[in-house]
């Protein structure tokens, strides 16, 4: 149950971040009012995902110590990096990939505790 909650929080947070990027990309080169920007479908999706992620995060914190749960959210760095590469063809250099590997290793070490 804890692993499913953690994975859901990470995925929703990642989707929220990617949706924010897609929202601002949809604004590029367009004259939009603030209200039009606020109701961009991608931004609405971002808010929904981040809100859902927050609610699941609260459930997770009921079951897991924050000192263990919070560092595991660093998996979001990994997911967002992979999504940025796949969706936006962003260049990821070797130093960045090393950081991603360190994050994965750190989360794996933390996972051995639970």
Question: What is the element layout, followed by pairings?
Answer:
Layout: H1 2-27, H2 34-38, H3 41-63, H4 66-72, H5 75-88, H6 94-113
3D structure, described in words:
It is a single chain. This protein is mainly α. The protein has one domain (2-113). Helix content is 83%, strand content 0%. The protein contains 6 helices and no strands. It has helices at 2-27, 34-38, 41-63, 66-72, 75-88, 94-113. The longest helix has 26 residues, at 2-27. The model has no long low-confidence stretch (mean pLDDT 93).
Summarize the structure.
By secondary structure, the chain is mainly α.
Observed structural traits:
mainly alpha, 114 residues, 6 helices
User: For the terminal residues, how far apart are their CA atoms?
Assistant: 12 Å
The figure for the number of domains is: 1
Specify the helix fraction band: over 70%
Radius of gyration, Cα only, in angstroms?
16 Å
- Count of helical stretches: 6
């Amino acid at each position: 149950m804890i692993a499913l909650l953690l994975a859901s929080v990470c995925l929703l947070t990642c989707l929220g971040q990617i949706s924010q990027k897609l929202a601002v990309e949809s604004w590029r080169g367009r004259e939009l009012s603030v209200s039009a920007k606020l109701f961009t479908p991608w931004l609405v999706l971002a808010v929904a995902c981040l809100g859902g992620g927050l609610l699941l995060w609260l459930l997770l914190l009921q079951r897991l110590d924050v000192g263990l749960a919070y560092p595991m959210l660093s998996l979001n760095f990994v997911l967002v990096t992979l999504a940025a590469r796949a969706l936006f063809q962003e260049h990821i250099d070797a130093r960045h990939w090393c950081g991603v590997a360190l994050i994965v290793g750190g989360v794996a070490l933390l996972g051995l505790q639970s």
